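**Sequence, structure tokens**
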Amino acid sequence: MQILVDADACPVKQIIVRLAREYKLPVTMLIDTSHVLDDGYSTVITVDKEADSVDFKLMGLLSREDIVVTQDYGLAAMVIGKGAKAVNQNGLVFTNDNMDKLLMERHISTKVRRGGGRTKGAPKRTKDDDARFEAAFRTLLEESVFRIQEPI
């Protein structure tokens, strides 16, 4: 089991590393060449800046036991399709139950922007967002560690 992070614009990297150390789990941060990252704990993989390069590399590393942190709905859909867990930076755990709605909302927003319209941007990040992420991420870690340790 490992933690894979779509780390280019991830605001919760420090929380991820702190909890990964606590649970003694490996972390792989994936970034493109326009970013630099060294947190002293994670393995950092840098890929080219082509569209979806991080997503493709992450999917190549993914196994069913892994947890992925991403704000990309498309990547999250592929992750849960492979049976792994995915969570966003605000603590939303992606599931089969919420993925269709999220992808439809993304599609509609894209159509509006392509048509010259504007969509509402993300609100400013708060400490409450960090707390929600930490709680959801800890729950995923505990469920995953328990599942792996469960006798067959």
